[in-house]
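Human
Can I borrow your eye for a moment on a structure tokenisation matter? Give me a protein, with the fold worked out from its sequence. Write it directly below this note and I will take it from there.

Assistant
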Amino acid sequence: MTRQMAPEVLIFGGAGLISLLAFAALILAPAIGSFGRTWEKATAAALSLIVLVVLVAIGVAAGAAIVYYWDSISTLFS
């Protein structure tokens, strides 16, 4: 018997994949291509990945804050 994935998993997985591809094409590739030496390319890649991790952490923190304070936030819209 095959088990089907929930639609949310497919949607969030697809969004994550598109986001990673966009990061690689729009941030990582130009950063690496801007330098000629190997150590410069490695440093640019490492710094780009650090920026990615920080942006993901900010997104997770914002999401957690919204979930935690949802009762207070929802009263603003009603």
Summary: Helices lie at 7-33, 38-68, 70-74. The chain has a mean pLDDT of 92.
